[in-house]
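Q: Could you fold this chain for me?
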Amino acid sequence: MEVVQILHMNKGNGEASYAQNSKVQNKILTIAKPIIEEALLKLLGSNNDTALDSMGIADLGCSSGPNTLLLISEIMDVIRAKLSSGLLHPSSSSMEFRVFLNDLFRNDFNTVFMSLPAFHSKLKEDDRYKRVFGANPNLFISAVPGSFYGRLFPRNSLHFVHSSSSLHWLSQVPPSLDSTAGTALNKGKIYISKSSPQCVLDAYSLQFHKDFSMFLKSRAEEIVGGGRMVLSFMGRPTLDPTTEQSCYQWELLALALMSMVSDGLVEEEKVDSFNAPYYAPCAEELKSELQKDGSFIMDRLEAFEIDWDGGADDQAITMNSFDPDQMVVRSGKRVSKTIRAVVESMIEAHFGIEIMDDLFRRYAELVTKHLLETRTKYINLCKILSITKPIIEETILKILDHMPISFGIADLGCSSGPNSMLLISEVMDVIHAEYSRLSQPSLQFQSSTLEFRVFLNDLFSNDFNTIFMSLPEFYNKFKQDFKGTTTREEQPNIFISAVPGSFYGRLFPTNSLHFVHSSSSLHWLSQVPPGLDTALNKGKIYISKSSPECVFEAYSQQFQKDFSVFLKSRAEEIVSGGRMVLSFMGRRCSDPTTEESCYLQWELLAQALMTFVLEGSIEEEKVESFHAPYYAPCPEELNLVVQKEGSFVADRLEAFEIDWDGGVDLDENTDNITKETIAISSGERVAKTIRAVVESMLESHFGEDLMVDALFQRYAELVSDRLSKSRTKYSNLVISLIKK
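A: Sure. Below is the predicted structure, expressed as structure tokens.
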């Protein structure tokens, strides 16, 4: 089973989602909170003469839902409380918090990112945080998809690592259980059971030891000397892995599956060939692996019990609100939903989606029957680890045009789809070509110390899930490209993470980037110019030849304000000598109403909207109150803002033209295609392109009254008519900037 590709908690917020069924995991986090606080205080020290400038925090196996941001909240609460009481150095209030949320590629990061604006707002508006951290805490949250059974972060970049309810998942099913001879080693079972032969127990134990060793080795590279980890996961209290506390939930799930075998709904071979990639270790196994690895000292190890249903209705039982038997039935259903939210992706991949509802209904009945006889509990192990390796100060070798060993790259406005990974691919192609060209490659290329930290940025609602699911293929290509010219040990390390948020403000820690790229994004403003709240631009949605001067000025001022904030923010984040390459829609002349300034696509969209006004299906006031948050600047405006801001030098500025439809080539056999047919086809492509970009804004403003399909059909017709008369082009500006 490809665990990395398959395993994910159930997405969204529906009845079967992890977000709605993660009370047990929440309970574990709550119990572990004092342990997390202790580890943080030992890390930060008390009444120290100095404080950390920047703290790297990773939450491994973050999942999605209400528990995902709990760790960040707890850390901020601990530091706020200790600063308020004078137990931390005052300079800790200006500390940068670099928070990395990690889970597998198919995790629902979109839901996580959509919750971030509210989280940031809460921090900014809470007076308790304001008094300590100011109006804008230096909190930088990003997502790093991938398996934690391998490297995820650059060397010495983390101070505190946390993982809850995750390390009991193995990287794979123990290989020896995938019987090629067709003999079922664990017949009728899906995990360790009292009837399992010793070879099954040994296979699971061996896989856990291998995985946990790899986990420790990877974190030892990434955590600074004196850094800490708090890890909590399912375990067992004794050496015997067949006790109810360590495996009985799997036993009942196997019974539910076998009942479906008896009813002819599932093939027995299907059950025999399914093995859960899970292991609940005992304390002795953890200690043994830690001693063998040697990078960490175990500071504290505790085991605690949790009810299978998280103890959800204890209060109701105490208040006699429900019949005890009914309470157990409710508990059985909650346990079933909790397990389903966690394991359904694996079960579905192996058995198919058709059996899911029936399977977990049967499972709930079996759990209920079991809970009527005994109140079974999970055992959770929680430990604090300190890393003992010395702090290594890496010297940056200035070779290959001063290329650093750890290279920070940000792509701002990455969007999703086939273009999202183009920048990274281009950078890697250049590096690989340079390596191949050099007869004596530089020390960086000869060593595995070369690291690329790649940050993909877009707004919170961007579809990062799609990007993350494309990463395994990208990583495989990356390894193959370097395979012929380097050994495995010499291959550069690449760490890709997502940083949701607006680039019109800080996104990254100070001096963490060397190269910043942004394409087709900076023409979008942070907001509609404030002065356009009234109907100053009647019947239009952007600058037009009929627009009054105040409309031009409002758009120009908003762009200059935004671009200035953009430059100031990047100036904090980019090292001296670092570079930016920015490309966005613009115009070559100072007049913003020329066709090349891209006003015309908005002009035609306004005309399409006004046809609905004439038909009475849209109110005219709705059109007049919509203003595109867009601006196409001229070179003079760019240079003016760059000079006023003062942190960058413009190295190069060019303008080039692009056909509205991207200049799509026609096939060779097009002799019989008329100019009119070409214009219609181009108009449809332009309409689809514009729709893909602006539909979310239009729907938000016009609501259900807007018939989107009909709108863009009319827009396509208007564009086709325009293109049949003139081959209109966009102007695109590209500016290269160097940080002073």
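A (continued): The CA atoms of residues 649 and 734 lie 14 Å apart.
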